[in-house]
Design goal:
2 domains; alpha/beta; Rossmann fold; 13 strands; Glycerate kinase, domain 2; 417 residues; five-stranded parallel sheet
Length: 417
C-alpha cells in the first residue's frame, strides 16, 4: 500500500529493479530427484517469514529456514524475502532494503527512564522510519515493572520530534509491541500538546490522568510532515475489540485496570472530537499499540494503513512470488490474529492471487479452521517437549529442523509425482 497524501512515498521504491538488489537471494540450482529421462527442473522457493518476537528477526528466521531447506533440497533455487507488517522489525526491514542509516537518540522509555533508541534515515528522500516499540515497547519494561496506568508513549514522540528537527518530509511509523495504553497522549505531549483538566491545570500525559481530561491545547505544536502509521491489526480504539480490553492484559492490566484504561480512552476520544474536531475512535486499527494509532490520526493528521502492504511494495513481493513455485512464510504463532493484518496472511494472499501454494511454519499453530483457508499447509516447528524459555532460546534450531523436514517431504512428493 502506498500511503495516500504522503507526497509520493512510493516514488523511491523503484530503486529495486531486480532480485540482485535485494539482500539474501541465493544462486539458482537444479531441483532434486528428477523423473527418469526428463531434464531436471529447478524448484523455486521463496522464503518470506516475519519475525519471531523475542527470539529471531525476520532475516534470522529466513536464514534458518534456508539452512534447513538446503540440507534437504540442495539443488533447489531459494530466495529470501524477510517481511514485516508494522510491528517490531518494520523499520529494520525497510532500512535494510532501502539502505537507510541508523540514527541513535536518547529518549524516555515507557516509565520515563532515559534509554538509547534508534530510528532510520534515508537522506535522499528525507524519509524517517521508526518503530514505536524502540522507545515505548514492552521489551523495555521487566514483567515486575509493568504499570499500565503510568506507561507512556512520550519516548515515541521524542523520536518523531527528532525526525521533524532533522527535516523529514515523510515519516513511517511501525506500530506494535507496545507497553502502553495511553491513546498516544504521551507521544502528543512530546510534540507540544498540552492536556488540561476542567480548571485549566496541566495533566501528566499518562493513562491514569485521562479520566480528568477536559481540554487539549495545540498552540505549541510545530508543523508536522506527512506521517504514515503502519498497522498490523484492525482493532478499533474502544469496546470489546479495543485497545484496553484486548491488549491491556498482555501489558499487566488486571480487570479493574482494564476498566480504568477503557474509561480514560473514552474520555480522550470525546475530548479530541470536541476540541480538535476529528473523530477516529472507530477507524479500523485505531486501537493498535495501545491506541497510539488513534493518537497519530488525531494529533498528527497521520494516515493509517497496512504495514505489510507497504513492505511488500518495497520488496516487490508480488513479482517475486509470481516467479516462485512455492512460498514459505513463518511467525511465532498462527492464530486468529494472523488473519487481522499480520504478515504471513498477507504473503499467503499475494501467493493465492498468483496461484502459488504457501506453507506456514510457526512456533505454535492454533486449531483454527480459518487458517486452512489461506495456507496450503501449516506446521508447528517444536518437535520435542520443551519449556517456553528453551523453545525461545533454541528457536532458530527448531525452525531449521522443521524446514529440513518440510524439504524432505517436498522431495518425497517429487519422487512420487
Amino acid at each position: 500500500m502506498r500511503p495516500a497524501g504522503a507526497d509520493g512515498v512510493g516514488d523511491f521504491f523503484v530503486i529495486l529493479e531486480d532480485d540482485d538488489a535485494i539482500p539474501g537471494c541465493a544462486p539458482a540450482l537444479s531441483s532434486p530427484h528428477p523423473a527418469p529421462d526428463t531434464p531436471p527442473r529447478r524448484v523455486k522457493i521463496l522464503i518470506a517469514p516475519d519475525k519471531f518476537k523475542g527470539c529471531m528477526s525476520a532475516l534470522g528466521a529466513a536464514e534458518a529456514i534456508a539452512r534447513g531447506l538446503r540440507a534437504a533440497l540442495p539443488q533447489a533455487e531459494i530466495a529470501l524475502a524477510p517481511i514485516a507488517d508494522g510491528g517490531e522489525g518494520f523499520a529494520e526491514t525497510l532500512a535494510a532494503v532501502l539502505g537507510a542509516e541508523w540514527v541513535r537518540q536518547v529518549v524516555h522509555d515507557p516509565l520515563g527512564r532515559e534509554v538509547e533508541a534508534r530510528w532510520a534515515w534515508l537522506e535522499r528522500e528525507r524519509l524517517a522510519i521508526l518503530d514505536m516499540s524502540e522507545a515505548s515497547g514492552l521489551w523495555r519494561v521487566a514483567p515486575a515493572e509493568r504499570d499500565p496506568l503510568r506507561a507512556s508513549t512520550y519516548g515515541t514522540g521524542q523520536l518523531l520530534r527528532a525526525a521533524v528537527a532533522r527535516g523529514a518530509r515523510k515519516i513511517l511509523v511501525g506500530l506494535g509491541g507496545s507497553a502502553t495504553t495511553d491513546g498516544g497522549v504521551g507521544m502528543a505531549a512530546a510534540l507540544g500538546y498540552q492536556f488540561l483538566d476542567a480548571q485549566g491545570g496541566a495533566l501528566p500525559p499518562q493513562p491514569s490522568a485521562l479520566p480528568a481530561l477536559a481540554r487539549i491545547d495545540a498552540s505549541a505544536v510545530p508543523r508536522l510532515p506527512a506521517i504514515f502509521a503502519a498497522c498490523d491489526v484492525q482493532n478499533p480504539l474502544l469496546g470489546p475489540r479495543g485497545a484496553a480490553r484486548v491488549f491491556g492484559p498482555q501489558k499487566g492490566a488486571d480487570p479493574a485496570t482494564v476498566a480504568t484504561l477503557e474509561a480514560g480512552l473514552e474520555r480522550l476520544a470525546a475530548v479530541v472530537a470536541r476540541t480538535l474536531d476529528c473523530e477516529h475512535r472507530e477507524v479500523p486499527g485505531a486501537g493498535a499499540a495501545g491506541g497510539i494509532a488513534f493518537g497519530l490520526l488525531s494529533f498528527c493528521g497521520a494516515e493509517i494503513g497496512s504495514g505489510f502492504d507497504l513492505v511488500a511494495e518495497v520488496l516487490q513481493l508480488e513479482k517475486r512470488i509470481a516467479a516462485s513455485d512455492l512460498v514459505i512464510t513463518a511467525e511465532g504463532r498462527l492464530d486468529g490474529q494472523t488473519l487481522e493484518g499480520k504478515g504471513p496472511a498477507g504473503v499467503a494472499a499475494l501467493a493465492r492471487q498468483q496461484g502459488k501454494p504457501t506453507l506456514a511454519l510457526a512456533g505454535s499453530v492454533a486449531a483454527d479452521a480459518a487458517l486452512d483457508t489461506i495456507f496450503a499447509a501449516t506446521c508447528p516447528i517444536i518437535d520435542e517437549p520443551v519449556t517456553l524459555d528453551e523453545a525461545m532460546r533454541r528457536g532458530p534450531e527448531f525452525l531449521e529442523r522443521a524446514a529440513r523436514r518440510a524439504g524432505r517431504l517436498l522431495a518425497l512428493g517429487r519422487t512420487l509425482g
